[in-house]
Amino acid sequence: MLIFLNHLINGISLGSVYAIIALGYTMVYGIAKMLNFAHGDVIMVGAYICFFSVSSFNLPPAVGVVLAVLACTALGIVIERLAYKPLRQATSLAVLITAIGVSYFLQNGAQLLWTSNIKMFPSFFSASPIGLFGGELKITIAAIVTVAACVVIMLGLTWFTGRTRMGKAMRACSEDKAAAQLMGINVNATISMTFAIGSALAAIAGVLFCSVYPTLTPTTGSMPGIKAFTAAVFGGIGSIPGALLGGVLLGVIEIFASAYISTQMSNAIVFAVLIVVLLVRPSGLLGKQVREKV
Amino acid sequence: MKKIRLSKTNRINFATFGAVILAYAVFQFMSGTGMLSSTIRGQLVPICAYVTMALSLNLTVGVLGELSLGHAGFMSVGAFAGAVAAAALPIDSDPLRLAASMVIAALAAAAAGTLVGIPVLRLNGDYLAIVTLAFGQIIKSIMENLYIGIDARGLHFSFLENRIIFRDGGRMLLNGAMGVNGIAKISSFTAGFVLVMLVLAVIFNLVDSRAGRAIMALRDNRIAAESVGIPVTKYKLMAFVISAAMAGAAGALFALGQNTITANKFDFNTSILILVFVVLGGQGNMWGSILAATFLTVLPETRAMRGLADYRMLVYAVVLILVMLATNNPTIQDFINTRFRRKKKKGGAAK
Amino acid sequence: MSEQQKNSYPKPKLVPVPSTNIIPERDVDKRPILECRHLGIDFGGLTAVDDFNMAIGRTEIAGLIGPNGAGKTTVFNLLTKVYQPTRGTVMIDGRDTAGKTTIQVSHMGVARTFQNIRLFGNLTVEDNVKAGLHEHTKYSALSGIFRLPSYWRKEREAHERALELLSIFDMQDMAGYQAGSLPYGAQRRLEIVRALATNPSLLLLDEPAAGMNPSETAELMNNIRKIRDTFQIAIMLIEHDMNLVMGVCEGICVLNFGRIIAKGTPDDIQANPAVIEAYLGRQKEA
Lengths: 294, 351, 286
Fold this sequence. Notes:
The structure holds 3 protein chains of 3 kinds. Chain A is mainly alpha-helical. Helices cover 72% and strands 3% of the residues of chain A. Chain A has one domain (2-280): ABC transporter involved in vitamin B12 uptake, BtuC. Chain A has helices spanning 2-32, 39-55, 61-84, 92-114, 141-163, 165-175, 177-182, 187-212, 222-235, 240-261, 266-280; strands at 119-120, 130-132, 137-139, 215-216. In chain A, strands 1-4 form a two-stranded antiparallel sheet. The model of chain A has no long low-confidence stretch (mean pLDDT 87). By secondary structure, chain B is mostly helical. Helices cover 67% and strands 5% of the residues of chain B. Chain B starts with 7 loop residues before the first helix and ends in an 11-residue tail after the last helix. Classes of the chains: A mainly alpha, B mainly alpha, C alpha/beta.
């Protein structure tokens, strides 16, 4: 039973990281109707920035995180302006390929700058876990921080999109850009803001992910990116609660599959579950069932 | 037989065939007279394989109009099926064994395509794409954990762990994550050329037929296709399975030109690579796929690019982004449309 | 349309059939091609169509009119199973269509055009028509790939049939043009040709005259009659152009807020106060 709970906690913790990444995908999809394949690599960049801040410049971890967030936010805005904005009228496939180009660019740029030697991400949290139930159930500080961060981010985003002007502008743009523009909303600024938020979240996710899986290479962001993207679709692409649900479920399924069925096949099982869910609910768990107008 | 008036499409098709035949003749000549560097010569078979992959993916993306992000999975199935078949088949003649292996690979990939196609059919757009991505990952995981061995009693299979016990002197063919080793390289440029020609012929003939019209109709407007009674599911599956079979044959060709193949050679990155070929060459444009696949496979190996050494992939990425930006720029698009587009009614209203 | 033209075309006598439906007298011996009884659909809490009863004679030209949002296209969608009805039955040529799909209903002989034109934009005009011929000029995919004799034979058949159908609207010279590049009116006509290619017993036209000028509309009226007379099929139109409706339709059904408010000949409908109120509103008390 306690082992089960251990796995559950690990799953929720990993899932929280996926959820944070998935949020970036889902928000950008909601507003720009594009799948930002470069998102996973922004995570990697954030992790590297933090790594170098702490290891090479001996800055305190909090500063490292802030720097990573700032760098990624800037990166996200720049990418959007240079590579995606000119393609707003293009087919979604064209934008997808461009996003892939950006992804290649980031990965290879990182490789040139920082080599593909594995960097060991420093642990920010004390390694000794908190013991409950007489020391049987071990919860790492990292796990607690991760889940807490995810909850805070979710609540913050829900408040932001529901209550603030910019948040409402985002929701308007994701419904109908042309109409939003006619209402006086600055669509360009809103889209840039969305990318900024998504990228900032990516930086945080990068730090959290590497706290648990400390090997850092230019391709570190790739697999979590794919999985988080899957989680976003799983939960219903475009839905913020969907990203949370999808991410956490995916993390839990991954850990349980790895523990109880097979570590080697855990990825396959995760993807298989996704397929089954999409067959039953073709728009994802919380996705809108959009009826095509005939 | 009544003379068939050649329409413009037919002329383009024949031109494409002609160009491929010409290219083959030229390259074969250059290769034979030692004009090609050994690097390029070594790339001839992979080029044919990637061209076939691009053509087959174009059938799904360009003709059927659905995004597939797991195409490398079918290549993978074909590669391993082909490699195992080539090692196990008791055929002495290399070309015959190659041909048989490629056929087996195509059938195996077609079976995989059917398995994937059935769940995929219910979905559309981005969700379909995600499911193809998921299947690509699943296939990769399966191949990494599959063990196949052969001895006097025949083939033995094992999954997740290698529990194969040999009698009468056997050997491992597929060794899980280690892949297949010691492959006898029986692929040839000629075989690659034949494959490309066959695949082109099948695609052109399919597109210019009742089935092809049905597939393109459901791409252009699924609801309208249903309203004229076209069985949408059947044709979606058809396109998918044919595309998978071709990818499988390409995989076998590729594998039998290498010493070793492992499952991680056919991962998401490979799927994306092929997708880039198709999009750059133009969706539905077979000639474009051939050019893009050839050019982009050869390009990293040329002296110019090798000179850039580490910056090679970075330059590739930048060029890719710039090309996408350029081809989707409205000014440039209008230019292309007015010069090269098919006949339009004068003063035709926009869609 | 002049009075003379209107009067010179023989007006059919409408007779009631069991239930409150009416069909042309000449069709009364044959089974109605379409019969709807108590057809209705709810979308969540909203009832879009309710208690829709209608019969169409085998060679009748019927009209379905009503203000915007009345549910007319929804009725078409119910007949073609784009939506599954919540209640009621639809019988095509006496066969119940419960549980059937759009594709199956098409095979039963129902063809339609769409309010927002749905052509196969990247295909040629001829290929659009050939797509309509899909279920009638058949050969296997393998035959197409390997170019067996049946391919050549059937393709020639399809080609000839397509040109024949296009000639109804004098469009045979446009056969090689890309469908998506045609002018609006031509696209509408092509959609009708494609629907006819499926050899239907019932043709549903959704606002066929939308965007047409009066001379084009008059031509369309003649073409609709020509189609009915040549193919001996039933046609149902949704239309807002009253000249067209009153000029060509034999039996008209008026819909408002998802319910039928009147049924009858053009003369009946034009005089019906409920219809006038639905379109123009009630006259204010003096």
